Backbone:
């Protein structure tokens, strides 16, 4: 992974669908992540192929039309910093048309799927589970949008909010090795937002163990709408002072129960 590109800067204000990362990028094998920006009245067809998808409303309000689903609206969501998510699960073979009632931003996560075992399903803010993780300057709000108990095939999706100056994915953990019951193999992608949006965070990706490939240690300045691929390694992230940092996190692997392995050098902070 030492030569892989992991950091994908924001593409700017691009209308329509933008492919951000896909299998083959950054060492990913399963995950794809797209973003969609729609002006009021614009629409975008999403899905319909051999991949399952979770479409997360980042801001705005949308009308949705899909087979076996009554026409409905999701939102409004002013921003990722103000309210819990609305989302739509689209199983393999199911496409849907998303029409913007107001200017809207979407994130579209996908992974290969063999079974079309669900109709399209709406996830409302009331379905999203919230928890406070960590403490002190490594506390953060975590929101499970599509958890391990949701009957998707691969995708697990959530959101994290770091207060200014706080760390998350801390103590540093990884999930890149099939070693039950200690660790499971799940690749991951982060999509970041900042408030105010001129802010930044720092994302470290490291693994001193070369048995799973070349040892790695990268640090990226992540800005509003950047993406980082996390095929392996520990991956703590911190918000700059004065700026709230949000990231959408998307996991894909075998099974529905990710198991994290914490860096033994830093696990002691649990005992502070």
Residues:
């Amino acid at each position: 992974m030492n030569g892989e590109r992991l950091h994908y800067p924001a593409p700017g204000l691009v209308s329509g669908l933008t492919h951000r990362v896909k299998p083959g990028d950054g060492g990913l094998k399963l995950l794809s992540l797209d973003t969609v920006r729609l002006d009021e009245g614009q629409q975008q067809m999403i899905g319909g192929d051999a991949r399952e998808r979770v479409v997360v409303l980042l801001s705005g309000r949308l009308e949705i039309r899909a087979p076996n689903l009554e026409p409905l609206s999701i939102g409004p969501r002013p921003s990722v910093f103000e309210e819990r998510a609305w989302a739509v699960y689209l199983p393999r073979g199911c496409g849907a048309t998303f029409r913007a009632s107001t200017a809207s931003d979407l994130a579209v996560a996908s992974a290969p799927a063999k079974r079309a075992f669900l109709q399209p399903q709406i996830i409302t803010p009331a379905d999203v589970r919230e928890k406070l993780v960590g403490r002190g300057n490594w506390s953060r709000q975590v929101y499970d949008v599509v958890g391990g108990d949701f009957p998707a095939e691969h995708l697990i999706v959530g959101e994290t909010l770091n207060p200014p100056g706080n760390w998350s994915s801390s103590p540093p953990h990884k999930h890149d090795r099939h070693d039950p019951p200690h660790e499971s193999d799940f690749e991951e992608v982060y999509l970041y937002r900042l408030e105010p949006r001129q802010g930044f965070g720092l994302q470290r990706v490291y693994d001193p163990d070369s048995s799973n490939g070349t040892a790695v240690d990268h640090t990226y300045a992540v800005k509003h709408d950047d993406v980082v691929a996390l095929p392996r390694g520990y991956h703590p992230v911190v918000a700059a002072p004065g700026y709230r940092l949000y990231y959408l996190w998307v996991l894909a692997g075998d099974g529905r129960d990710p198991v994290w392995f914490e860096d033994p050098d830093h696990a002691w902070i649990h005992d502070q």
